[in-house]
Amino acid sequence: MTEAPLRRTSLYAEHVAAGGRLVPFAGWEMPVQYTGIVDEHQAVRTAAGVFDVSHMGELRLRGEYASHVVDYLVTNDAKRLADGQAMYTCACNERGTILDDLIVYRRSQDDWLVVCNASNRDKMSAHFARAAKDHCDFEDESDATALVALQGPRAFEVLAKLGDDAAKLAELKSFHFRDATVGGVRCTPARTGYTGEDGVEIFCAWNDAPALWRALLDAGRPLGLKPAGLGARDTLRLEARLSLYGNDIDETTNPIEAGLGWVVKVEKGDFVGRAALMEIKARPLPRKLVGFEVTGRGVARHGYPLKDLAGAPVGVCTSGSPAPTVGKNVGLGYVPSAMAEVGSRLLVDCRGRDVEAVVAKTPFYKRAK
Amino acid sequence: MSELPADLRYTKEHEWARAAGGELTVGITAFAVEQLGDITLVNIDVKAGDTLEIGKAFGTIESVKTLSDLFAPVSGKVVRVNGDLTAKPELVNEDCYGKAWMIVIAPADAKAADGLMDAKSYGEFLKTAAH
Questions:
Q1: Mutant choice from B38, B60, B66, B68 vs A, greatest count of A C-beta within 10 A
Q2: For residues A225 and A50, is the Cβ–Cβ distance under 8 A?
Q3: What pTM does this model have?
Q4: What value of ipTM does the predicted structure carry?
Q5: What is the pLDDT of residues A12-32, one digit of tens each?
Q6: Which residues of A touch B60 (CB under 8 A)?
Q7: Domain that holds residue A355
Q8: Do A237 and A321 reside in the same domain of the chain?
Q9: How many folded domains does chain A comprise?
Q10: What would the DSSP string read from start to end of A227-246?
């Protein structure tokens, strides 16, 4: 068996210095935790956390027809974006199932950035490169681009300590971005995130990330900011019911059944997967991705079978873990539409033990505005 | 890493066993706890009187991150299980060598514990296992 060596982000030494426990993730050596998942999770919910997400892929499309190429490959309507605005979307194949979930950024009419999951970088890079061929310039900028997420209710207090320009980032609207200077580092913060909290995700040059990281930690520590790893990132996003590619969505699932119909704009004009998605939307959905709370003694995990109360298999748990802020064991999973109503009871097969669960309203956690 | 209690025996699955009065009290080591992180659930699937076979799972322990099996370090009969862990799984994080004992076994072979590692061997095992 040959395995490619794990890659390291430019923040590797920072993770080691902060006591991070590094694990393989999508071909990268990434910190799963520093002080503990629950501790980091609570820091993000009550103060702030800083995450290294430099492993994600950044694809750049430029030229007169770049907007058309981007819009043709995604399900959401890129034509609605203004300069400096971003949107969450899926990219589907012709069958209408999900190649990846993305954030698309319009820098200008002829300059677009697409951020994809690390696990899908090669696939999406090839997908966009193929579509861009003969139409616009394409560049995979992943190796040159670092990404640091600053999330939590005190995120903008942290930024306020890092220069006049950074202080003004509080004025940035949700899903907007601009070039800025944060703690002396030239970067591009976007008001987006994957935790259910307010905050920014900050792009910068690969080798500038350590300076940015240290500036955020130094400014944030007195406010309760902590470095947070992939473990907390997973519990935070699960509480907020944000999908994880490879768990909740993949090439066997479509956005409609996954609850992502709000990013499918069939009326926007042609795009890859449109015909299939119109078919899917025209018929009742056989199954839906729902959230559930485990009411019995057990923790649902990715891959555990879901059953009806008679014990017949009906679906599968796609994500599950204890939810530290909610104080319950929660999960997501696909169930037949007839069982998708809030309050529907089901069983989670926890390695041979059937544990009771109930379909719950999602997100499990919603921050106070 | 905290110091390994010298009076205990250890397994490669990171369990400890304390011999007293012909019985073995069993729990998991600080190394196991550190690897698991915040413990949220302890399920002991056996009850007093049940027969245990060495290496077979007698329960599971769940942390925020993952699930892990609890293995019988020796064969024998279950004498007691720690019911406190049902309501207070956090005891495992707080006191893994004390209040968070999991089961007491009457070993089928009185000398069974001699087959387990002592603190020195386990300490060396951790050095090679840790990375």
A1: B38
A2: yes
A3: 0.93
A4: 0.81
A5: 999 999 999 999 999 999 999
A6: 351
A7: 285-360
A8: no
A9: 2
A10: E--HHHHHHHHHHTT---BT
